[in-house]
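Holo model, magnesium ion. Inputs:
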Amino acid sequence: MNTVNKKLEYFENQLDPQRPEQSAMPCKVLGYGEITTVLDLGEKDRAFKRMPMFINEEEITNYKHIFHLYNEILTEKIGVKVAQSDLITLASSKYNNLVIYIAQEKFPSHAIGNKCLQRITKESTPEFIRLLLEQIYKVYKFNEENKGHLELGLDAQISNWAIILPGHSEEVSSFADASVFYIDTSSPLIRKNDEELCNAELFLRSAPSFLVWILRKFFLKDVLNRYYNVRLIMIDLIANVFKEQRTDLISTIISEVNHFCLEKNIFTEDQQINFSEVKSYYREDALIWRLYLMFRRVDRFLHRLSFRRYPYILPAHIKR
Ligand SMILES: Nc1ncnc2c1ncn2[C@@H]1O[C@H](COP(=O)(O)OP(=O)(O)O)[C@@H](O)[C@H]1O
Ligand SMILES: [Mg+2]
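Output:
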């Protein structure tokens, strides 16, 4: 076992998911995703995404296979750069589960899309947004060409991208020669012959047990469909502008998206996206995530009441 694996094993065994940063082995939470918690464990070039939801080896093998396939198709067939990742599996005696850590190349905080969005100027906004639209377009084109046989889902929200400028500059006045990396590869959404390859139950594992059947029956398919629908992907991306409190940029961004989509024949004049549509989408989305987090906290509390360990790390609060 190499030193990183040993370190992860030690970390996992001593981790208190309720207070990860106060565990005996220090760590820093870099971000809370929908599926993973992203940790800095003091390795210079690596961020670690913790996924404690696997129950047997078969699930691990399948997940690894689909994860690698998703990364490979994105990079080699579609031409979207992804953050380089290795998957490390551990057995957790504490939760009687298997845990995957995605050891991913670490990007500086200023390079993560939402941090860029917070700092960009109005002048550089069209260039910035276009960088992301071009990546979405590559996936869209691939999906159109392979419709019904092989399609990839993409969660293009702004915090799922890293933007690296020449010389690793923190400047945001120009994005010429920027490299864009997709970092949220933990949900490898691939549809082969219209069937989701990844076991969608995995996405429900961290949901409160008292909600699972409702989510499975009424929401899961819709949520997954969202990532295959280019118009909804665009709306979701624009809604991030509210989340990052840059409403001053919203009209510039909406017109850039519409312009791009018309130019590339992604949609027609009457399908253009408008302000009120994005705003109501954002409101609903923010409410759903707030409620969902609240239910997860209730679930954690119920675990404690019944002396069961709760394996997930929950954010203290989410600003949306
Ligand atoms: N490789 C990385 N380097 C630095 N920070 C990262 C990296 N990956 C993720 N993060 C941080 O963690 C957040 C959530 O990560 P993400 O990959 O979107 O998780 P999830 O797959 O659960 O949605 C990101 O928005 C970012 O702030
Ligand atoms: Mg994410």
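The chain has a mean pLDDT of 93. The CA atoms of residues 70 and 76 lie 10 Å apart.
Archived with the compound record.
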